[in-house]
Amino acid sequence: MNFTGKVALITGGGGGIGRAVALGFAERGAHVVVVDHDESLGRGSVEVLRQQGRNAVFVQADVRSSADVQAYVAATLAAHGRIDCFFNNAGIEGSVAPVYDYEEEMFDRVIAVNLRGVFLGMKYVLPVMLRQGSGAVVNTASVAGLVGGAGMSAYTASKHAVLGLTKSAAADVARGGVRVNAVCPGPVETRMMRSLEAQRNPADPEGVHAAYAANIPLGRYASAEEIANAVIYLCSDIAGAVTGTQLVVDGGRIGSGGPGPVPRIRPGS
What we know:
The chain is of the alpha/beta class. It has a single domain (7-249), classed as Rossmann fold (3-Layer(aba) Sandwich). It is 45% helix and 14% strand. It has eight helices and seven strands. It has helices at 16-27, 39-51, 66-80, 104-132, 153-173, 191-200, 205-214, 224-235; strands at residues 7-11, 31-36, 56-60, 85-88, 135-140, 178-185, 246-249. Helix 5 (153-173) links the parallel strand 5 and strand 6 (178-185). The longest helix has 29 residues, at 104-132. The termini are far apart.
């Protein structure tokens, strides 16, 4: 999986899975463009890459904004002239609450970032790839795109929708030499999971972590690097006939019969 000379564009590249994917592409020779709403985190990823002698550029953007999305595409083309791999990854977890208590403003925000952001990314990146006659897109979905989860209505709805969007987009561009897939992580050792654990039980987030891990056949969360490996595979020539589908990376949780009991939301969350 050699990406020497190829250009990898990554949204949500400031931390967690996004940063791991940026590092993975760079280690394999790609030019990397990191996009993030948080300037400090985004520039931090680029600094890590540059310290390793890698070629990296940062673009600050709000993926909900059409103008910002067009700007990060334009910046990538100005720097490198093409886009070979697009990890359409930016997302937020939102709050944890029953659907009947879920705040409308938060619901709208989660859908705007997790779904509209993915749509806009493909809307403006796919024409570039079609002009090239090649390219690979990986959208970040989740096991929450395959099953429901108590207290996670907005996030679950957004990730189900990302999978549908992925399949439709793949059909739109397949004859143009462009592939579109999704990755579906289970629990991963990232800030997002720390947030969800703390929301479910502020008094004992470590206990929530242990409960989640106990329901994973491997007995642990995945690392961000393990998700990155799946993304890089989907973008590689090795996956040349893979499009319109999702790759689940969850330690066997879904394949073994479902996510198992979800830790309850505790008072004070």
